[in-house]
Specification:
Elements lengths: L21 H4 L5 H8 L6 H12 L1 E2 L14 E3 L2 E3 L3 E3 L12 H11 L5 E2 L7 H8 L4 E5 L4 H14 L4 E4 L48 H10 L4 E6 L2 H9 L4 E4 L13 H12 L4 E4 L6 H9 L4 E4 L1 H32 L5 H6 L3 E2 L1
Parallel strand pairs: 4-11, 5-6, 6-7, 7-8, 8-9, 9-10, 10-11
Antiparallel strand pairs: 1-12, 2-3
């Protein structure tokens, strides 16, 4: 059961928002690990775009509304949750705390929510879901070919994961830092597939790196192979969103990967309304990239997302205080969301979208 805020005290004093964990988290991590967590691609323009888009969306208060009995409850793919704040897939969580992904998973369950476990998790899929005590979701990276990809997906399904989020905006994902000897992507087949040899005149990008990237045919194949709910993560274009749903997928995640892949892309929130307009009647839409508090979550929900994913903020809590820190971040952001809902005159999640409370 979710703990009321009065009973869920952080081990870090003076923490009232997720951002307050920053000053406790950073000293506990090496400079390289902190840069890996907080850094974006290139000059950081994509990360800045996420923040600017969220700040530009203003919330209109609607006083005098009767919001007694309000709730943030929702149901996604047969699972009931108390709030729409999902823990996004973040790799190598033992970099940030020795309990790693298991601590985050326990916190998600303790707060009656959900976690999406990364393909690059630093603990086994089986041990993470055992620690969670509930069916988690799994984030799938393409493994260079169909056989390896399906093998990894089937392992997650066998372990009890209840939905697959297929990430497509980082087609070949590798660590961008030198990992410690005791931290690795323990669930991936080793060694990784080698890149093809290049001939004269061939491109190392088009004929090398991207040869191992998935395409639309691979997505259609994966949909045929997996009976669980399948969502595609990393969508910014409405045409792609429509094509994904027409391929039989159950949903998608509007995301620019937290600004970590291609610098100069727009903020995820800028692209959300067009995608919602195109496919919301046919699919579940999750929002990712840049959520830092409950007000941010409200804005994404108001613009059509069914739920939101939080990333770096829960890792701040993990680094500072382990599972307790993650649970506290979730609780703080849920309290902020509920307060925002109340002041905007919206008593439940459907009312947020219907309330027209966003001014841009």
């Amino acid at each position: 059961m979710s703990e009321p805020l009065a009973k869920l005290q952080s081990t870090a004093p003076g923490v009232h928002t997720a951002a307050d964990y920053l000053s406790f988290a950073q000293p506990r991590l090496t400079a390289e690990t902190w840069h890996y967590l907080e850094g974006g691609s290139g000059s950081g323009m994509a990360m800045q775009a996420n923040r600017h888009a969220l700040d530009a969306a203003r919330i209109i208060t609607r006083p005098l509304a009767d919001v007694r009995g309000g709730s943030t409850k929702l149901k996604l793919f047969g699972q009931q949750f108390e709030h729409p704040l999902l823990l996004a897939p973040i790799a190598y969580q033992r970099l940030f705390h020795h309990q790693g992904e298991a601590a985050s998973a326990m916190a998600a369950n303790a707060q009656c929510g959900q976690m999406v476990v990364s393909s690059l998790a630093s603990q086994t899929l089986e041990s993470i879901i055992e620690a969670a005590g509930q069916a988690l979701w799994f984030q799938l990276y393409w493994q260079g070919d169909r056989q390896r990809t399906l093998q990894l997906a089937k392992r997650a399904i066998a372990a009890g994961y209840g939905a697959i989020l297929f990430t497509v905006d980082a087609p070949v994902k590798q660590a961008v830092m030198q990992l410690p000897e005791d931290v690795s992507a323990v669930n991936l087949e080793q060694p990784a597939l080698p890149l093809p040899a290049l001939h004269a005149g061939q491109s190392s990008v088009f004929d090398g790196w991207m040869v191992q990237a998935p395409d639309w045919d691979d997505l259609a194949w994966l949909r045929d192979e997996i009976s669980l709910p399948l969502l595609v993560k990393g969508v910014l274009h409405a045409d792609d969103a429509e094509k994904i749903i027409n391929a039989g997928c159950d949903g998608l995640v509007v995301s620019n990967h937290g600004g970590r892949v291609l610098d100069g892309v727009p903020g995820s929130l800028e692209m959300l309304p067009k995608i919602v307009q195109r496919v919301s009647a046919k699919a579940t839409i999750l929002f990712d990239s840049g959520i830092r508090n409950g007000q941010d979550a409200f804005k994404a929900l108001a613009l059509g997302a069914d739920a939101v994913m939080i990333g770096r903020p829960y890792i701040w809590g993990l680094a500072a205080s382990g599972a307790l820190g993650v649970a506290h971040v979730i609780r703080l952001m849920r309290d902020e969301l509920e307060m925002t809902m109340a002041l905007a005159g919206t008593k439940d999640l459907p009312a947020i979208r219907a309330g027209k409370c966003i001014f841009k």
